[in-house]
Amino acid sequence: xSASCFVAAPEIAMAxxxxxxxxxxxxxxxxxxxxxxxxxxxxxxxxxxxAADEVDGLFGEEDTVTIRHVEENVICSDGASLRYQLWDAKxxxxxxxFRGLVVILHDFSTDSGRACRNLVPRLLSEGFAVSSFDIRxxxxxxxxxxGFGRSSPLRRLFTGSRRIVVDGDDCWVQIQKWRxxxxxxxxxxxxxxxxxxxxxxxxxxxxGAAMAxxxxxxxxxxxxxxxxxxxxxxxxxxxxxxxxxxxxxVYKLLDxxxxxxxxxxxxxxxxxxxxxxxxxxxxxxxxxxxxxRLREANALLLKAAVRVVENANRASCEWGEIPLAFFxxxxxxxxxxxxxEEFKELTGSSQVTLHKYTDAKHWLHHEVxxxxxxxxxxxxxxxxxxxxVV
Length: 390
Hints:
Shape: globular
CATH topology: Rossmann fold
Number of helices: 12
Mean pLDDT: 77
CATH architecture: 3-Layer(aba) Sandwich
Number of domains: 1
Largest sheet: 9 strands, mixed
Radius of gyration: 20 Å
């Protein structure tokens, strides 16, 4: 499905149609404020999907802006189907320059809609196109074309809760698939924006930040230059495990399960208490009720995810001068900030920076105000600065 719409600045929120296609009844006649409340209640609003405090004042009062929203499934070479979205904006002539393309990688166990919520309006307002996708095995993406929403050994849905079983691949194969998926989406997004050879930035959230770092560390310089990837923004990056637990210990525990399903929260990828995501307690309640949330995964998938975290942790030694900005809450117990501080120190690079937010938790883009706005301001400042670097 793809859509375009023309909107005047005060009604810019009308541009975000269909962020969430769950079974809730669409809310009609919504104001921006009502829709923000609907979002936190887990309701579907097909008219407006942007929180009022993030939309108000982003676009000039007299501007007419064209928002293009593309949403469809991208089929990978192995048959996997990735749910893909892209947003870009056309401004009046000479009013705003196109600055680049931001590709968002969401956190483990959730889906891309949750990560895009407050990011898309701000990024569009500053001249960036935005792309996102549901990571393989999450949200509305599948592992095979016949594996989504059916009774198959690859994917099962039970009573509205997502449970996934991968097909026995070695965890290294799974990691290679994730890396390949990122590149597939980057190439697709580049082809979808009208500007030629755009600057590309990866924006990772939680586990998605580890994925972005692992992908960049594994990428050949030739490919990075071809895709024009100019930097990574890592929000609440998961680069380590909880205190006194080693990667080796987790691998040993997961090996005992084989391909059995386990609750992902037990193995440090997603918080077992939803209030640890944000000080805005509505976020935890929303995620708890989300039908697309991954409840259980087999041990092999979790082992691959932990391996990605370890790979990202070790990438500091060979990171080089790739621009990398960490954004981290000081009360983030899902992703220890100490691991991020150690990564930054080991790189020894002035291109690696760390922005810390006092008392903020894991999902900075869903934090309470003013911290959420401070984070978004810092993120945009970093993106705009590195867009200008030749």
